[in-house]
Write a structure and sequence with these properties.
Layout: E1 2-4, H1 20-23, E2 51-55, H2 63-75, E3 79-85, E4 102-109, E5 112-117, H3 121-128, E6 140-147, H4 159-169, E7 174-179, H5 190-210, E8 219-224, E9 234-237, E10 243-251, E11 287-296, H6 302-308, E12 312-318, E13 321-322
Parallel strand pairs: 2-3, 2-6, 3-5, 6-7, 7-8, 9-12
Antiparallel strand pairs: 1-4, 4-5, 8-12, 10-11, 12-13
Family: Belongs to the SurE nucleotidase family.
GO molecular function, one term: nucleotidase activity
Domain Survival protein SurE-like phosphatase/nucleotidase: 52-242
């Protein structure tokens, strides 16, 4: 086990690593209108394969991360690295560890070089792209696959989205990915299908990166529908404004009151327990549990609506600002071609 302490980064916001063309003084091609169709990155020698770093907020043992890593390794077109929290860190947003060091421990994951970190998703991404534990900066950072969707304003709370945002802050292309898990309906095996649905998107992004036409100043958020086996295709959407109205309930212990499965999902695996009478609790020490009171969703919200309709979608944003509008739809598992406005 190693211990690392965070230091101020040398990167400036929105900085990018210079490409080979830039270093040689050659012109960089302008932003094209399309993501070229691509079914994944295969057929390269090991030295030529792009490097992807995988993180999440559900923890390094979470089935969503393991399914994504498994799909990347099986594709045999990527050098796969993992730097993820050693325990669940859902809904921690973009919190970082500053005053104390984080512990890093090597973990065995077939086909990948992997480390578990005692910090947050943002810590994991920062460490993974810093050359502290890996020998080079990755070509792409992938955060997920999260248990539960991340639509609308919930992206602010999401540790999954923060894992991608941290890479964006440091000039590394990144994507956050979430599966719309529904308790009692979704199965662990669905993560494998979700990972397979993400591969064409990952391949298309890396193709753009190689061609120096990946859009600067943005990172991507991908959400996959519950019925992933029959998802209708890919859409590029606006980020919506959906959110949950929260409240607080007095409880008798830290174990009482249910458990939020994700930033966005209201389903709970444990039953609701009745409210406690405040008179039974000590005046000096009371415990309150956050809970969802109601969901507020505008019918016009593009991301949430598309997800409910069964599409895999990608809002694309600049630190919370809207960038790209809805575009074309393609057949399930076909290579995505995204049009930028």
């Amino acid at each position: 086990m190693c211990i690392f302490t965070a230091l101020p980064s040398q990167f400036a916001l929105n900085s990018r690593r210079p490409t080979a063309d830039q270093l040689a003084g050659r012109p960089v091609p302008p932003l094209s209108l399309f993501f070229p169709a691509m079914d994944g990155v295969t057929g390269r020698s090991s030295d030529e394969r792009p490097t992807v770093l995988v993180t999440n907020d559900d923890g390094i043992d979470a089935p969503g991360l393991r399914a994504l890593v498994g799909a990347l390794v099986a594709a045999d077109g990527y050098r796969v690295r993992v730097c993820a929290p050693d325990s669940e860190k859902s809904a921690v947003s973009h919190s970082i560890t500053w005053r104390h060091p984080v512990a890093v421990k090597r973990v065995d994951i077939d086909g990948a070089e992997a480390f578990a970190v005692s910090g947050t998703p943002a810590d994991c991404t920062s460490l993974g792209i810093s050359n502290a534990i890996f020998s080079s900066v990755p070509d792409l950072v992938l955060s997920g696959i999260n248990k539960g969707s991340n639509c609308g304003y919930h992206t602010v709370y999401s540790g999954t989205v923060a894992g991608a945002r941290e890479a964006f802050f440091n000039g590394v292309p990144s994507v956050s990915m979430s599966y719309d898990w529904v308790g009692g309906k979704s199965k662990v095996e669905d993560y494998t299908l979700a990972a397979e649905a993400c591969l064409p998107i990952i391949g298309a992004i890396l193709d753009r990166i190689r061609n120096h036409s990946y859009p600067n100043g943005s990172f991507l958020n991908v959400d996959l529908p519950t019925d992933i086996a029959n998802h209708k295709g890919y859409k590029l959407t606006e980020q919506g404004r959906s959110f949950f109205v929260m409240g607080w309930r007095l409880v008798s212990s830290e174990m009482q009151g249910g458990q939020m499965l994700s930033t966005m999902t209201m389903d709970k695996d444990v039953a609701e327990l009745p409210d406690m009478d405040a008179s039974t609790m000590s005046a000096e020490h009371r415990l309150f549990k956050r809970e969802v009171r109601k969901s507020q969703v505008d019918d016009s919200d593009m991301d949430h609506q598309c997800l409910q309709e069964g599409y895999t979608f990608r809002p694309s944003s600049k630190i919370g600002c809207l960038v790209y509008l809805i575009t074309s739809v393609h057949q399930p598992y076909s290579s995505p071609i995204f049009i930028y406005s």
